Amino acid sequence: MDLGLLYPTRDCGEADFAELCRRLDPAIGLAFAYPEWGADGEPGTAAAVREIGAPERLTQAADHFPAAPDVVSWACSSCSFTHGLDGARAQATALAGHLGVPASSTSLAYLAALERLDVGRVALASVYHPDLTASFAAFLAEAGVTTVHAVSADAGSDRTIATWGPARITELTEAADHEEAQVVLVPETALHTTPLLGELETRLGKPVLTATAVTVWDALDRLGEEPVQNGLGTLFRSAAGRRRPSSSSA
Description:
Blueprint: E1 2-6, H1 14-24, E2 29-33, H2 46-52, H3 55-62, E3 71-74, H4 78-81, H5 84-99, E4 103-105, H6 106-117, E5 121-126, H7 130-142, E6 146-152, H8 158-161, H9 166-176, E7 183-186, H10 197-204, E8 208-210, H11 211-222, H12 234-237
Parallel strand pairs: 1-2, 1-3, 3-4, 5-6, 5-7, 7-8
Pfam families: Amdase
Organism: Amycolatopsis lexingtonensis
Keywords: Isomerase
């Protein structure tokens, strides 16, 4: 099976996706294509984040996959949730119609994963500015998910975030945890979180859903696969049944 990931910034978090796919199944094919940042502000600004997530910009980038994938995902948290739930669905619908394959995004993958785990109260370990963290909480609220606590690192660009080591990621995740949260979300695909998936859940005693993990899990699930592998956290530890019909996923 071949996964096609649209990714916003070249040479940031692709290696983390590749590592996760290798650990799940070395036969998984993985290809990246890169939408172009527009002229409406510097990459990473609110205006630029919205512009790069325009459906037509995503479908143009999808034409640059080296071969047609079996499933495609817009592998960016902020560039999907800043468009709201309807906007994220529109992105996935445009990609599915253009390529003729199942399509999703990291933000929609979060909703699918939360539904699969049957949880509705979350904490956010956010690398974003507080305003952008609030935007993600608003996106989740549209789908009926309550954010009980959030921390915002305001860490800057994708390239800066991609340099974070395990200790800093762990510190942010632990700071975000809250006794009322059933799950902690770490919404940033530039972070290298695959080596930490099992350890983070052991430390917190609850599921920790990283952007890389939910994106890959959701893409495979949309193909009818059951990605199961010990040491990679709750989503991959057991197949909790097939996807249920949902208003939250595209």
